[in-house]
Every structure is written in structure tokens, then in C-alpha cells.
Amino acid sequence: MKKVSKKSQLEFDINSFKSMMLSCYAYHSLSKEDKYIKPYKNKLGVELFNKIYEEQHKYLNKTFYIKKNVHTDHEGCTYNSLIKI
Predict the structure, then answer these.
(1) Which pLDDT belongs to residue 1?
(2) Each residue's pLDDT expressed in tens, for the chain with a length of 85 residues
(3) How far is CA 34 from CA 14, 30, 53, 67, in A?
(4) Whose CA is closest to 18, among 56, 45, 59?
(5) Cβ atoms within 10 A of the Cβ of 26, count?
(6) Spatial separation of the C-alpha atoms in residues 4 and 85, rounded to whole Å
(7) pLDDT value at position 29?
(8) 81-84 long-range contacts, CB within 8 A, separation 24+
(9) 49-71 burial, b for 16+ CB within 10 Å, e for fewer?
(10) Structure confidence at residue 2 (pLDDT)
(11) What is the Cα 27 distance to its own chain's centre?
(12) Which of helix, strand or coil describes residue 20?
């Protein structure tokens, strides 16, 4: 099994965090206390977590608006979309 470097793991965790923030932003309010967001505070450490959260939060708010219910699948689940401003 190939060993993953600390740098590669950190990059993966940061990208994963940003992706989760994007999903939370699209489907409900974005909060540092969100059950899907909160675990990243332990993975990244408080300082890095706060820095990335603030940067990504600003980026999402100024770059996208949420268009709700753009698609309904065969099970009745609805999907939102982020539309670039």
C-alpha cells in the first residue's frame, strides 16, 4: 500500500472541506456548526479551518445564487443548482 504524504493528505482534506461547504451552501444554510462541516475543524485545526471557511464563504456568496428545485428524480427527490452570478 502506498503511503500518502502529509501535504497530499492536507490538500485532499482542504478540497473535501470546500466541496462539503459547496453542498451545504446549495441545500441548506452554511454554518461552522453544521454537522457536515464541523468534523473538518478537527482534521484541519481551528486556525486553518476558520481561514478556509471565511474565504470559501465569501467566494460562494459573491459568486453564486441558489436556484431551487431544478430537477426532480424518479424517487421524488429535488435538486438545487448553483448559478454563477
Answers:
(1) 67
(2) 678 798 899 999 999 999 999 999 999 889 999 999 999 999 999 999 999 999 999 999 999 999 999 999 999 999 999 999 9
(3) 17, 7, 12, 21
(4) 56
(5) 17
(6) 38
(7) 81
(8) 81/26, 82/22, 82/25, 82/26
(9) beebbeebeeebeeebeeeeeee
(10) 72
(11) 11
(12) helix
> Is the CB of residue 58 less than 8 Å from the CB of residue 42?
no
Show the CA angle centred on residue 78, arms to residues 77 and 81, nearest 5°.
145
Instruction: Read off the amino acid at residue 40.
Output: Y
Tell me how long the chain is: 85
